Fold this protein.
Amino acid sequence: MDTYNPARMLEFVERGDERGNLVVVEGMQDVPFEIKRVFYIYGSDRDVIRGRHANRESEFVLVNVAGTSKIKVMDGKGHEKVYTLDRPRTGIYLPKMVWKEMYDFSEDSVLLCLASTHYDGEEYIRDYDEFLKIVNGEAR
Ligand code: TYD
C-alpha cells in the first residue's frame, strides 16, 4: 500500500442551525499557520490545469467552497497523490515545496485558497525540472 501523504485533509467544524451553515477558519487554530492572504479561483473550464508550481515559502489551505475540483500533489521524488475537493467544510493543507496542479473544475467551482504569506512571485517555482533538481539536492 502506498502510504505517501504529502498533503493533509482538514475537516472544519460546520456550525449549522435552521438558518443554514457556517464554517469558521481561524489562523493557527483551524489551519496550521497565520493567514496572510486569501484568494479564490473560479470560472476555470474543466480542461484547464492551474497551479503547476511549487512554493519555497508559502503554505496553503484550499477549500472548494462551491463545486468540486481535483488537486494532484507531487513531492518530486516519485510520489504523487490526487485529492478531490468537494465540500465547503473540507480543506487540504499543502506544505511548502510540493508541486501542485488543480484541474477538473466543475462549472460552479469556487476554490478558496488561504496562504501563509503575502504574494511574492519570486518564491514560486514554475519550472518542473527546476523543482525536481531542488528537491533532489541538485540545485538551490
Ligand atoms: P497563478 O499563480 O498562475 O495562479 P494559479 O496558481 O491559480 O494557476 O497566478 C495568476 C496570476 O495572478 C499571476 O500573474 C500572479 C497573480 N497573483 C497575484 O498577483 N497574487 C496572488 O496572490 C496570486 C495567487 C496570483
Notes: The helical segments are 128-135. Residues 37, 39, 41, 50-51, 119 surround thymidine-5'-diphosphate (CB under 6 Å).
